[in-house]
Amino acid sequence: MMAAKIGPDTLDLARFLRGRAQADAPLAPLTWFRVGGSADLLVRPADADDLATFLAAIPAELPVTIIGAASNLIVRDGGVPGIVIKLGRGFGRITRNGDALIAGAAIGWELDRMAVVDRNVLRLAVAELLECPDVPTAVILNEAVELASAYSTDDSGRFVNGVLATLAEQLRG
Questions:
Q1: What CA–CA distance (Å, rounded) separates 127 from 111?
Q2: Do 8-93 and 98-172 share a fold?
Q3: At CA 26, angle to CA 35 and CA 49, rounded to 5?
Q4: For residue 145, what are the contacts with CB-CB under 8 A and spacing of at least 6?
Q5: Rounded to two decimals, what is the model's pTM?
Q6: How many CB atoms lie within 10 A of CB 88?
Q7: Dihedrals φ, ψ of 52, to 5°?
Q8: Would you say domain 98-172 falls under CATH 1.10.940.10?
Q9: Which of 49, 67, 107, 167 is 20 to 30 Å apart from 30, CA to CA?
Q10: SS (H, E, C) 52-109
Q11: End-to-end C-alpha distance for the chain, whole angstroms
Q12: Which CATH architecture has domain 8-93?
């Protein structure tokens, strides 16, 4: 199946951005090596709300590539098909709140109702899931379950396993 092409409708959506959009934009000036082709559409949203509004408006079948500073990026000569979204400095402050992730996965449990050890083991495991992609998911879950089982209540291992299994699926697929 071929990806959808950038058409006049998509370009029309870009005019509602508070940030900038450029069709057939060269990407070489953005990379450290100054090489590579262009993007069908380069979008530089003003902020997270601008980005969310634009992403919600574009057709789902359009390919989207998101880049940050682009210092580690090498673009092929043929460019990047679809939409390239360049995130500016303000996007570096966007973080995921580990406690909110835990609360969302621990259905029926508020953080302050959890055993202190369970809550802190979950925080440690979520940080590892988010920040240590080289550590296998199974290792993170097993270590967390072992800690909770050894140092918390009789039900803690099962509880931590259930919450982390949900989070691991959401965060790592």
A1: 16
A2: no
A3: 120
A4: 157, 160, 161, 164
A5: 0.53
A6: 13
A7: -60, -40
A8: yes
A9: 49
A10: HHHHHHCCCCCCEEEECCCCCCCCCCCCEEEEEEECCHHHHHCCCCHHHHHHHHCCCC
A11: 23
A12: 2-Layer Sandwich (3.30)
Q: What is the pLDDT of residue 109?
A: 87
In tens, the pLDDT along 45-61 reads 988 888 888 888 888 78
Q: Cα–chain-centroid distance for residue 48?
A: 13
Is there a contact between 26 and 41 (Cβ–Cβ < 8 Å)? no
Amino acid identity, position 31 = T
pLDDT digits (tens, 9 = 90+) for 13-48: 777 789 999 999 999 998 888 889 999 999 999 888
What single letter denotes the amino acid at residue 159?
A: F
Query: Which residue is it, tokens 């918390």?
Result: 152
pLDDT higher than threshold 50 for residue 2: no
List the domain boundaries for the chain: 8-93, 98-172
Look at strands 64-67 and 80-86 and give their pairing: parallel
Tokens of 163: 């919450």
User: Residue 106: what residue type?
Assistant: A
